[in-house]
Amino acid sequence: MANKQTPQPPIATMPEAAETLLALMHAQGEAARLREREQLFSTLLASVNAVLWAFDWQSQQMIYVSPAYERIFGRSAGLLLADYNEWRNSIYPDDLDYAERSLAEVLERGSIEDREYRIISADGQIRWLSDKCFISQQQEPGKLVVVVGIAEDITEKKHLEGELQRLATTDVLTQSSNRRHFFECAHREFEQARLQGSPMSFLLLDIDDFKIINDSYGHQEGDTVLQHIAEVGKGTLRRGDVFGRIGGEEFAAVFPGCAADMAKQIAERLQREIQRLSFNYNGKQYGVTVSQGLTTILDTDEALDNLYSRADAAMYQAKRQGKNQIIEG
Question: CA 108: distance to chain centroid?
């Protein structure tokens, strides 16, 4: 007896309208997810305090710039996308040649990660940028060459570095060079003078009877005297001279390119200006004097210590001979 097959019910087919609706709903879902990702990406870009940029090398056009551009530069991103000169014209004039040259180097090196230069923002502030740049793909004939970069505002870092440098090289009380920085500069000037065969003079200066000032009027008054001596020193010396406080009441100066006669004139002017200083402590007027030892580089000098020793000996001779005078050694 032949088996009878049970007839299968017909497979229901989805109407085209329903399929279209499901496809539309799926597309809308994908579009919504895409919008969410775009929103997230835009939020991330807006929160980054650095300018992300992309530059078409052939056309010399900026093709993308992130929102941080308007915060850091204070200028319109739309104007920059229309004209790259908006960025170029913002660069501090002294740094423009370096900024352009280092940007061009990316074509050979593939990346430049140590570019630092200044810009002038729209409100006139000078800001420092660390502007790293990279080639987005291998250069091939006929292919678009896009340079991408990230420009970070490092102004605060630069200010901090400058302050640390100032603290490391400056005497806190007198704001003149401290001992270490003074002798670093003095050694450099000595080697330069020897190399070029040019004159150089060295001066040591010590405040006369400074201990009496401290004992009679107090250390705060003594600090005031030191500050005024430093101000006179910095105001009397020439541009390029080196001046610093190297001890308690002892100062020193280096006069590059300065022969003995000119150095003596500078020391005498310094002596006169210090003698003109007048101090007042509780209604009592007093003045100060200094003893100076001065010397000039000789052909036989092998180190700065030779000049220091002669100037030191001359200064103490000035003390022994009555103070308030200049002795050449």
Answer: 28
Q: Are residues 155 and 243 in the same domain?
A: no
CATH code of the domain in which 193 resides: 3.30.70.270
323: left (phi over 0), alpha (psi -120 to 50) or beta: left
| Greatest distance between any 2 Cα atoms in the chain | 147
Low-confidence ranges of the chain (pLDDT < 70): 1-48, 137-142
In a domain, 8, yes or no: no
Q: Does residue 37 belong to any structural domain of this protein?
A: no
Taking the C-alpha atoms of residue 176 and residue 170, their distance in angstroms, rounded to an integer, is: 6
Helix (H, G, I), strand (E, B) or coil at 95: helix
Can you give the residue range of the structural domain that contains 131? 46-160
**One domain, residues 242 and 117:** no
CA distance 241 to 66: 47
Domain boundary residue among 137, 160, 183?
A: 160
| CA quadruple 86, 87, 92, 98: dihedral sign | negative
Instruction: Please tell me whether residues 121 and 214 are part of one structural domain.
Output: no
pLDDT in tens, 171-183: 999 999 999 999 9
Residues paired with 134 in a beta bridge:
111, 148
37 three-class SS: helix
The DSSP string of 103-149 is: HHHHHHHSEE---EEEEE-TTS-EEEEEEEEEESS---TTS--EEEE
| SS3 (DSSP) at 61 | strand
C-beta of residue 279 within 8 angstroms of C-beta of residue 287: yes
The residue from 160, 178, 210 where one domain ends is 160
CA–CA separation, 83 and 271 (whole Å): 60
The pLDDT tens digits for 7-42 are 555 555 555 655 555 666 666 666 556 665 656 555
**The one catalytic residue among 249, 250, 268, 328:** 249
Catalytic site residue 249?
Answer: yes
Whole-angstrom Cα distance, residue 277 to residue 209? Answer: 15
Round to the nearest angstrom and report the end-to-end CA distance of the chain: 140
